[in-house]
Amino acid sequence: MTAFVLALLLGLLALTGLSLDGGLALASKVRSGGQAESAARAGAQALDLAAYRASGVVRLDSARARDLAQRYLASVGATGTVQVAGDTVTVEVTATYRPQLLSLVGIDDIHTHGRGAAHPQRGVSGIEP
């Protein structure tokens, strides 16, 4: 009887750990994705104003876009990489979640990733008078 109860308790602890830590790891992944998307949007605001004023062409100032995206990541305490290619800012965020219960069975870290991309747009779209 003791072995059965012990095995049942270990199984319930593992199930609880998977539920709790799995949910929190998923929340970490969603947070990483939101941070990446927001950082990409921040970077996409770095327009090359001289080119826009001269020819009306909307394009990014690559160095400033990268800087704005990195500043946003730093402001929310996230780490990631920023790439600017053409008129698109792409941000990838990596976060590490430290499990609460699964660490008891040897799972010390769960790595989550988020990715976001944005490009500048001219004017307001989708709004009808």
Q: What's the gyration radius in Å?
A: 22 Å
Main sheet attributes: strand count, strand direction, barrel closure? 3 strands, antiparallel
- How big a fraction of the residues is strand? 15-25%
- Uncertain parts: none
Quaternary form = single chain
Structural class: alpha+beta
How many strands in all? 3
Question: Mind explaining what this structure looks like?
Answer:
There is one protein chain. 49% of the residues lie in helices and 20% in strands. The protein has one domain. With 129 residues, it is α+β, with helices and mostly antiparallel strands. Strand 1 (79-85) and strand 2 form a beta hairpin. Strands 1-2-3 form a three-stranded antiparallel sheet, covered by helices on one side.
Write a compact overview of the structure shown.
The chain is an alpha+beta fold and 129 residues long. The chain contains three helices and three strands. Strands 1-2-3 form a three-stranded antiparallel beta sheet, with helices on one face.
